[in-house]
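Q: Two folds, back to back.
A: First:
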Amino acid sequence: MLKKILAFAALGAALSLGLPTDATAGAVSIHGSTTVDTTLIQPYKSKIEKNSKQSLKVVANGSGSGLLDLIAGKAQIAMISAPLDAVIAKLNHKNPDAVPDGSVFVPHMVGAARVAFVVHKSNPVKSLTQKQLAGILAGRIKNWKEVGGKNAPIVVMAEQEGGGARSMVEKTLLYGGDIRATLKEADNGAADVPPMVAKDPNALGITMEAKSNSIVNKLRTDKAIQQPLILVTIGEPAPNLAKVIDAAQTAGFF
């Protein structure tokens, strides 16, 4: 544990001083949230690179994986789409001491996106309240007929634990607890959920609004769940990383 914290501190010092690590040769490496990547980085990548005068190497592998890659020195910036404390809590729940010292991280807000709940095109259910959604995710509501649908079991589809959309939903509706419903996980983030839902008439998918496309139906809800779009560094960013963060904020939302 102590060795891990000391290694963490050494990595932070190297990154803040711009010293070489596995992640700092050449292009700026950014790993993490598929939501941040789809909503902000990819649409504005050329603009961010031009304004920051930095080239980007982007890996969209989920909020939790991005943070772990940052810790391991595989990335210089992590992308997350849920509050930092929620992502850390989920990582440490899955693997105790995965993040030994969350105080070394510095979050940089770059925008916001909405979570979407989606169903198969044939599903007659058009809306769900947050109370109903919480009941489904907690495993108390198990059948679509309990919320006005057909007599069929509800199968929840979401990204893997630690992903931004899922973490935000769990934080908002389950007070940080785990999904207890029958669950199928997407391998490559929330963007993969709609194609999975399109193949299963009993599915309820958790994804990002930008990916709630024509192959599925997006449910109306009484309250929106907003995802923060955040770039994370270990310590204050080195000048080259600060330029990328500033350009992302300018290009996307602020």
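A: Second:
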Amino acid sequence: MKNRQHSVAAILTALILAVPMTSAWATHRNDAEQAIAEAKAAHEKAAEANAASDETANMIEQAEGLMPSRQFTKAREIANKAKQQDTFAYEQATGAAKTDETAASEAERAIAAAEQARKKAASVDGEWRDTAKMIGEAESLAKSGKYREATDLAEKARRQGELGYDQAMHEKDADFPSYVTSWRQE
């Protein structure tokens, strides 16, 4: 009986401590709504400078579309990306941001090389799962002016494309091992 009371007390203590912490990691509706409002404001500011893009407008709409399904964390992430891109576009249009042309062209070359490696791997059914997603994230980072991060991510994606191609070519003529084929013949 005494052990049972201790285990019940331990469970209650754990629940009392754990339940308040569960909301700490989740994004609340207010946070997502605030991020969307900030993204809209940045988009309007970029539009005033003729620097707004349809892509960021679509991202904001996508974030708003996630709200009814209670995907607040994803909505906040998308809205923050849109805000970063519009803010950077506004700064470029008004001359506030000095673009490092070398870093920008390096990121562009790295992204193009990654896309080429991905297509080469895909041509032999060797494309790895997240390669295209990594390239998309690198493009998003470049649009936000984060050229160094975009270059690094594109290099990783390029390497994945190369490895995927190599793996597919090595497995191309692979057959079952002899111990498997001898079992099948019996």
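Q: And?
A: The chain has two domains: 27-94, 101-171.
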